[in-house]
Design a protein that fits this description.
Length: about 375
């Protein structure tokens, strides 16, 4: 096993000997969702999740075909985009997928080189390098396709001092609910079709220079009824982590299959956002109307025997349904929202890491059983 340099604490495996962090990626720049009504979606993410106004692009700023609201909370930037015209690619995306993630934008030093290197290694181009400028400088962006209709846009912004991108103005409405303590994107998970996981693992290794972090198989992640397989890819500095799931054969329909049915193909399943105080964050989000999945209370009966000592009081964790898991390096606390739209597709994870670098494998069974109860109510199990 070749370990990736400068990151000895992460357990990485280069599955292609020539994989290297050639881009490199500085972090997630923004996540763009195509939604049916960006104005109302922005209200939801501000009110319920505690995002703050950052920027707006639309008719008033010279964008003719769309309106985009850019929200921010600490290092997380969310772009909510809705089409203004009939037809066109945004409408097609919405009709096929419903509200969902279109763009996972990655912050790079050189968007032109990022496009050249990834397309040379086999990525399908979404957007050739484009330079946009205004009085605040210039931004270079380029893009490639990934799973389903999802794309990665490389953003080079070292010569730009504006609020977001050229074509956007500051957004500053009177309504400014407080934050909920969300800090940064910890990982983003993709659901892909039957037998496609390894193809996309290979894509991130070959095309993006990622390494494999950990792998699970369907024995790790299955319940009596449903199963899935998952592998996690990461870039060299560990700031970008993409687990990829595919459905596995079970007695009944797996949650990944349900996602694929309603999203009409592969796409982003969940966005995991980190907090320093999960109890405070979840209390706040619940009071603002965010719905979370609940595990049965017997989950907590022998929890400390399973995960060992933790710093937090167990009572509030149990009351809020927060899950706990431990690996060799520490533990983590996590909780999952119900899907954020009517289609059972995209949801969020709230995660607080206390040393653990894994993804809550010990919680998968309890979690999947909670999801299955929801699937049963939808008649999709
Ligand atoms: Fe996750």
């Amino acid at each position: 096993m070749n370990t990736v340099k400068d990151n000895s604490s992460l357990q990485l495996e280069k599955i292609f000997p020539d994989a290297e962090d050639f881009l490199p990626l500085n972090g997630t720049d923004y996540v763009e969702l195509y939604v049916g009504n960006a104005k109302q979606a922005a209200h939801y993410y501000k009110t319920a999740f505690g995002f703050q106004d950052l920027a707006y692009g639309g008719l008033e700023t010279g964008l003719k075909d769309r309106a985009s609201y850019v929200l921010q909370q600490d290092k997380i930037r969310l772009v909510l985009t809705t089409p203004l015209e009939k037809g066109g690619p945004i409408n097609e995306h919405l009709a096929k997928h419903g509200d969902g993630v279109k763009v996972v934008a990655l912050w790079v030093d050189d968007a032109t080189k990022s496009w050249e290197e990834t397309t040379k290694r086999g990525a399908k181009s979404f957007m050739e390098p484009v330079r946009d400028e205004d009085e605040n400088g210039y931004v270079v962006r380029s893009g490639i396709h990934t799973y389903g209709d999802t794309v990665h846009i490389f953003v080079e912004r070292s010569n730009y001092n504006g609020i977001f991108l050229p074509g956007y103005k500051p957004l500053n409405s009177e309504y400014q609910p407080s934050t909920t303590g969300l800090k940064y994107i910890d990982h983003m998970v993709g659901n892909v079709g039957w037998n496609e996981m390894n193809k996309w693992i290979e894509f991130y290794a070959k095309v993006m220079g990622f390494a494999q972090l950990v792998s699970f198989d369907d024995k790790d992640i299955s319940t009596e009824y449903t199963a899935l397989m998952s592998k996690v890819m990461t870039n060299g500095n560990g700031r970008i982590k993409f687990p990829i799931n595919e459905p596995a054969e079970g007695k009944k329909k797996s949650q990944v299959e349900e996602y694929l049915d309603f999203y009409n193909g592969a796409g982003v399943q969940h966005i995991a956002v980190a907090t320093d105080d999960i109890v405070k964050t979840v209390v706040e989000m619940k009071s603002r109307g965010v719905e979370f999945l609940h595990v049965p209370s017997n989950y907590y009966d022998d929890i400390l025997e399973r995960v060992g000592e933790i710093e937090e009081d167990l009572a509030p964790l149990k009351e809020l349904g927060i899950l706990i898991d431990r690996d060799d390096e520490g533990y983590l606390l996590q909780l999952f929202t119900k899907p954020v739209s009517d289609r059972p597709t995209l949801f969020f994870e709230i995660i607080q890491r206390k040393g653990a670098k894994s993804f809550g494998k010990g919680n998968f069974k309890a979690l999947f059983e909670a999801i299955e109860r929801e699937q049963e109510l939808r008649g999709t199990l």
